[in-house]
Amino acid sequence: MTYLSYAYRNLWEDPSIALRIETDIERARKSEVRVRVTTPEGAPLPGVRVAARQTASSFHFGANIFLLDGYDSPARNAAYEQAYLALFNAATVPFYWKGIEPERGKRRYNVDSPTVVRRPPPDRVIAFCENHGLRMHGHPLVWDFSQWSVPEWLDALPMAKQTRLWQEHVTDIATRYGTRIRRWDVVNEVLETARRGQGRPGSVPMPDDYGRRAFEWAREALPIDTERYINEATAVWNPANLKLWINYIRRLQSLGMRVDGAGLQFHLFHDEELRNMLRGESRTPLELFRVLDQLSPLNLPLHISEITLTSLDDDAAGRDAQAEAARNLYRLWFSQPLVRGITWWNLPDGGACAGEDRVYSGLLDASLEPKPAYDALHHLIHEEWRTRVHLRTDTNGCVTFRAFHGEYEVQLDDGEVITRSVESSLPSVKWDLVPENLPMTTR
After folding, report:
1. Contact (CB, 8 A) for 215 and 252
2. For the chain, percent helix, then strand, then coil, each to nearest 5?
3. What pTM was estimated for this model as a whole?
4. Do 326 and 421 belong together in one domain?
5. Residue 321 DSSP one-character state
6. Is-contact 60 87, C-beta < 8 A?
7. What is the CATH number of the domain that holds 403?
């Protein structure tokens, strides 16, 4: 049994689609590296073995980290951490006001703060991320959704008071964490509110033009070199909503707001939504390309910010379908030069919020064992999209190769290990290496 239709596979295996993805990955994610090995006097050293091994990617691969310390046993918490670190180099850190300050005046920043499900204290999360070199994305500073974001006590206050407290909330977070977290969702799902009206289910009344105000508050409070994103719900992948969102971003920019990046959610919360995609009836590669192409004139970094894909019926065929869908989507998104990061939403089954946890959308099962989708993404991120070369210098002491952007360890013959980087902003880089202790046979 399979949930993958011929129509779906034909769409993704179409030669023009496959060629575009492969060509764009090569162009957007790699640079040419030229290594020249010489003596201290500058004479070329031919025949030297050059082993270059990529140790980190410059691209952000992450998930939310909402279940850090969220299990009832040290062993399960350790298993969660191990699975997280083995796959990802980035993390979305929760700053939902409702979880930060469920009781007015008692903000849950410290490690020993009272427990709130899926809302570990920021101090604990940030320390974990810093200890393990995870790049952090703060999410969100402002969101109008009462169920997850707005404290219950706030709604009883006059609007003028609420507006002042929103600004104080943003300022307080920025003051405490703005130098440690370099990328933030300033406002979340503001288009969703505008699209459905202020009375959309779950929304609370907000200050007039609160999206603009959020960026103003962020401008005043965050360090100037932090990146400020606008994050939007999955409906943004539909053409009419995409047009509204682009116009909204341009309006913010015309008002002098600095928008540094745009996040696009991709939640398929119901099995039927994924079934439609696997029948080739929705979210086709051409449709996905079209959205990203239409965002291109904004010239903003893009973040595929929240991904939910179910494993249909949680049987073997459903898990395989989830894996193939995840692999296809990641390859398409990774191929697009403006996309700077991809974030799966809930790493384990059972890790989603109430109402969204009825489907099996994790990369790990409930026992924290990897599912096929975890293995598929691990192979992409740590094998297919990593560069490892073993070459020997030519008569000019040079080797040349194409390399994925990131950090590298380079070893010449059996000599010392040298660290270098391949920056994504450069089409080519040159490493001039002068070894100190190579065997005489190479000289």
Report:
1. yes
2. 40, 25, 35
3. 0.96
4. no
5. H
6. no
7. 2.60.40.10
